[in-house]
Amino acid sequence: MRNILLNTTAVAALMLAMGPAHADMAAAEKFLAEEINGLSVLSEDEQKAEMEWFINAAKPFQGMDIKVVSETITTHEYESKVLAEAFSAITGINVTHDLIGEGDVVEKLQTQMQSGENIYDAYVNDSDLIGTHWRYQQVRNLTDWMAGEGKDVTNPDLDVDDFIGTSFTTAPDGKLYQLPDQQFANLYWFRYDWFNDEKNKADFKEKYGYDLGVPVNWSAYEDIAEFFTGRDLSHLGVEGKVYGNMDYGKKDPSLGWRYTDAWMSMAGMGDVGEPNGLPVDEWGIRVNENSQPVGSCVDRGGATNAPAAVYAVEKAIDWLKQYSPPEAAGMTFGEAGPIPAQGNIAQQMFWYTAFTAATVEPGLPVMNEDGTPKWRMAPSPHGVYWKDGQKVGYQDAGSWTLMKSTPTDRAKAAWLYAQFVTSKTVDLKKSDVGLTFIRESTINSDHFTERADKLGGLIEFYRSPARIQWSPTGTNVPDYPKLAQLWWQNIGDAMSGAKTAQEALDSLCEAQEKVLERLERAGVQGDIGPVMNEEQDPSYWLEQPGAPYPKVENEKPAGETIAYDELIKSWQ
Fold first, then answer.
1. pTM score > 0.70 for this model?
2. Could you tell me which CATH number the domain at 8-177+395-467 has?
C-alpha cells in the first residue's frame, strides 16, 4: 500500500524538544500545540486535562519499555512514527510500535496463544478474530478488564459508546474483547468523470440498452467492465490502455482476504442476517443455535462449495483475466491498491477505503486541480444469489487486543498507549491523516464536513446508517489463524488454473472441516466449540430454506444501475 509521507524531520525536532522520556506536562503541551494544533473534538482545556490524566495514570510504569504491533497502513505509520514517540515523551513509558504485514501479525498472535510466551504487550488485531478470542479465552475481555484489574488505567473519558465498531468486537457473551483503532470498508470505486461524460453515456446506452451508472448488480458491473476495457478515451485526455476492472490474484495470504472479506456474501452465498449471516456466514460455515460450528461443505449444511460460492470465484477470475491489467494476476493486495490512482482504471468493485489517503494526493491523474477527486466510492453491487437482508460488504476493524499471557503491569502500560492513540484528544488528527474512522464524534466534526467534498463519498458513507451493514468476519469462525490460511492456498489453485473453482472450493471446505473436527475432538473450546453434523446427500440441504442455495439457471440477468447522485441521497 502506498502510504502518505510524514515530515519525519519536523517530527524528530518536535520529539527532541520534548526531551527524555519522563512524565512531562510541558511535553504534552508542546505536542498539543505543534502536532494536534487545534485539530481535536475537545477544547484546549479538555485536551490538557486528558493529557494530565495519562501522565498521572502512567506514573507507576515510568521507565518501562513495551512493545506493540500492527499491520502497515497509513494510520498505523502515523501512530508508530509520531504518536508512540509523543506518548513516550509525555508519560515516560517507552513504546516500540512495530509495523509488519497483516499475515505476520496473525502469526505472532497465534504463536503467543500456543506458547504462552509474551511476544508483544498489545496487538492491533483485526476483529475478524472475535470468534477465536471468544472461544479460546486467551485475551482479556475488556468489559471485565476496565471494571476490574485495569480500572486504575482506564481513562474515565474513553467514552466507549463513541466508538462506531464495538458491535464487531463484542462476542455473543456480551463482552467487549477488543477496542477499535482503525476501520475501513470495502466499497465500489469508479471514475465519476468518465461515467458522466456524454459520449460514454450515449455509447453505453446504445450498446447495452440501459443507463451508465453505479452498478446495482454484478451483471451491470460486467457490462461496464467490458465497455471500458480498451475504450478510446482520448477525447477526455486519457492516454494508454483503459481497463474496466482492477483486482489481484497472486497466491499470497492477501488472496484469502480477497474472498473471506465478504466477497462470497456479496455474491449471495450466506444467510440473511446482520452483521453476519445466520446460521450460514460469509465463510460458508454453518452454526447451530448455540453458535457451535457444524459444517462447511454443502453435505453438512455449509455453503463454502455451494453453487453461489462457485459463481463468486468464477466471476472474479473471469473479470481478472478479461478486464484487468495483465500484471494484476501477479499482484498482492498492497501492490494492487495504488493502481486505480494512476488513471487508467474505470471501476473496482473490491476497493478498500484505506487507500483513500493515497488516492487524494494532489497531482494524481485522478484528482482535479481544485483538490476534488475525479472518482467516487459507492456501495458494491451484489451477485445473482444475493437477497435483501444479506450481508452487503466487509469492514475492517483493526482493534487493540490484550493477551492474558502478557504480565499485568505490561498490559496496563500497553492499555494506556492504546487509549492514547484512540483518545478524543488525538483521534481527529489521526483520522485526518489515515481516514480510517473509529469515533462518531470525529466523523460528525465540522472539520470533516468541510473536507467531505475532497474525499469522494467517504464521509457521506460513514455518516449514513449504511455503514453498519458493512461488517467484519463474525463469530462463526472458531479459529481464524488456522482457517484463514486454507483460503489463499485453495483459492490460489483456482486462480492459477490448477483446479476448477468447484474443485478448489471442494478442497477448501474439506480442509476447513478437518480443522473443525480436530477442534471438536480436542474439546479446547468447551461448549461453544464445533459439533459436526452428519454428512447427507447435498440435495437435502439445497432443498431446505436458506443457505446453501441451489444453482440459479440464469447467472447473468439484465444489468441494473443507479445514478450516483440519487444513491448519495439514500445515504443522507
1. yes
2. 3.40.190.10
